[in-house]
Please model this.
Amino acid sequence: MATDILELHPGDDFIELFKVLKIQGWVGAGSEAKMLIADGHVLVNHEVETRKRRKLVPGDNVIFGEEAVLIQASDRAAPKVEPEPQVTKPKRRPSLKF
Model:
């Protein structure tokens, strides 16, 4: 079993367990992650974890099936994500009906 690394950037004190499953691509949606966690399919530090919002900190190890990820602290700032420009629709005048 190979272990991936998931870095927490400065300012991020923790990450919730269900988000790790989503970020790693182990599930397609948060609801699926929450269900699998509640059913006892996820291990944290080699123990079954059923708390969906368990706060993971550097040093925690998450195992799901044959996949594993180690949470580590990073010195690097999180990559900046540019927000998508919002398309504004022209305002329409209200129609008056008599």
User: Anything to note?
Assistant: Residues 3-73 form a domain with the Structural Genomics Hypothetical 15.5 Kd Protein In mrcA-pckA Intergenic Region; Chain A fold (CATH 3.10.290.10). The radius of gyration is 20 Å. Strands lie at 3-8, 15-16, 42-44, 47-48, 55-56, 61-64, 67-73.
